[in-house]
Structure formats: structure tokens, C-alpha cells
Amino acid sequence: xxxxxxxxxxxxxxxxxxxxxxxxxxxxxxxxxxxxxxxxxxxxxxxxxxxxxxxxxxxxxxxxxxxxxxxxxxxxxxxxxxxxxxxxxxxxxxxxxxxxxxxxxxxxxxxxxxxxxxxxxxxxxxxxxxxxxxxxxxxxxxxxxxxxxxxxxxxxxxxxxxxxx
Length: 165
What we know:
The chain is α/β, with parallel strands linked by helices. The chain has a single domain (30-149), classed as Rossmann fold (3-Layer(aba) Sandwich). The protein has 6 helices and 5 strands. The protein has a 5-stranded parallel β-sheet, with helices on both faces. Helix 3 (64-74) runs parallel beside helix 4 (92-102). The radius of gyration is 16 Å and the shape is globular. Mean pLDDT is 81; it is low at 6-29 and 156-165.
């Protein structure tokens, strides 16, 4: 997993010790994995940090080709792919098309402030389980991804413009 965001924004966490009587090591269920794909470095870092703090393992890609390589290498650990719609080279929908060739059941969610001519309904037809408008609250994003990982339908709500942090 790329760690450049952690180096910039916060030091690595200290290893935690299990309380007496708690299971240790491999006995805990795996943290849900998310592949974050966005050409904006700051967006990738903020999403990565927010989701890591919410209990997710994160793989981070700056473009569609990198996302395909990471998914191919880590698909067993990645539960959902979070894609920006507009990116240079392969855009988000084209990247999802390629990921669906590797795994027709890949769970994906689009995020975008500019849909680049795509409509949310078209993105859903292409296989997206959710479409989230930027800006969004990181806690809301984490909750929506948890719903997707558990196979529950996600209520389509506008994400931007809400209070809170």
C-alpha cells in the first residue's frame, strides 16, 4: 500500500496491545479494503486518511492504469473501488469497465465534483453501486462504503452542503 499520505499528514500508529482475554493477531476479522482512485493527490490523501481512521485498509491509485494493476494484485483484499469520474487517460467509467473484465462482480462507487457529461444513472448502468458528489463528509463516505461492503442498498442523497465535520 502506498504510504506517502501517512508520511505527510501523520506518523505511523503505535502497535496496539490487546486487552487481557481479547484475541490477538490473525483472529480479528480483516479490515475492509478500499481502492481509492483519483488523479488529485490531495483528495487521495484526505480520503485515504479518513478511511484508514474509520477502520479501512486503503490502496491508492492516481490513474486508471495504476488502479487496474493494484486491483489485479490485491483483488482478494479489496472489497470496493472508489473512483473519480474524470481523470486523464482512462476515466473512471473506462477504468470500471476494465476492472469488470477482471471481476464482473467488483463493487464500485464513483465520486466526483464534475461528472464530465456522465449521468448518475449511466454510471449505475455501467456497474456503479453508488455515486457520491464532491464535496462529501468523510464519515458519510465511510458509512456508505460499509453499506456497499455488506451488500445493502445505498440511499442516493446529495452529499455536499451539509453541516458537520
